[in-house]
Amino acid sequence: xxxxxxxxxxxxxxxxxxxxxxxxxxxxxxxxxxxxxxxxxxxxxxxxxxxxxxxxxxxxxxxxxxxxxxxxxxxxxxxxxxxxxxxxxxxxxxxxxxxxxxxxxxxxxxxxxxxxxxxxxxxxxxxxxxxxxxxxxxxxxxxxxxxxxxxxxxxxxxxxxxxxxxxxxxxxxxxxxxxxxxxxxxxxxxxxxxxxxxxxxxxxxxxxx
Length: 209
Ligand SMILES: Cc1cc2nc3c(=O)[nH]c(=O)nc-3n(C[C@H](O)[C@H](O)[C@H](O)COP(=O)(O)O)c2cc1C
Prior knowledge:
Blueprint: H1 2-7, H2 22-33, E1 44-49, H3 52-63, E2 74-75, E3 80-81, H4 89-98, E4 101-107, H5 114-119, H6 123-153, E5 157-161, H7 168-175, E6 180-188
Antiparallel strand pairs: 1-4, 2-3, 4-6, 5-6
Helix pairs in contact: 2-6, 3-4
Bound molecules: flavin mononucleotide.
């Protein structure tokens, strides 16, 4: 487990046309569904795409989405794009197109009510609504990481991409997503050389012993 965690990297190149074995998909989903979540809400629904045509259609929706060149996180205090960030939508769409397996993650059975409920929360409720929303997202993060690690242990690689949110409307319509789209875990077999471990940010652990 420790080796898998420490060697996992985002892989964006070298995908071969190989399909993903059904047993690997089963394991990936089983591990995703086993993730911890606040109040055991299991606030996810996983949309599994192995159909190359559907995958390409969704990748094309991302590639041609309006505003793709300026799609970066905004600073909520100003509404302006975060400085120094550049859009990666075009690159993300190209990666998605090559994925043999794409798992779109929907946040649905959330106790926080999702983005709409959060956006409509009164000022008095907003802080606690945000806490609930964040807790739901932490569970969603756990399901994504579990699936990613299970994929690694089957010799698969890939990357999770939030960029697909730019085409949320189209993707949700095609996949019957009723809740919030969170992103996609794009996986496949890659013949890219192993990516070395990354340097880890300093000062992120404070020991109080
Ligand atoms: C929530 C989240 C969203 C991400 N969205 C994207 C994305 O849209 N496109 C992309 O290429 N990578 C995306 N990534 C991958 C990150 O860029 C990557 O995890 C980070 O640079 C650290 O590299 P590593 O995964 O190799 O450790 C995302 C990762 C996370 C966890």
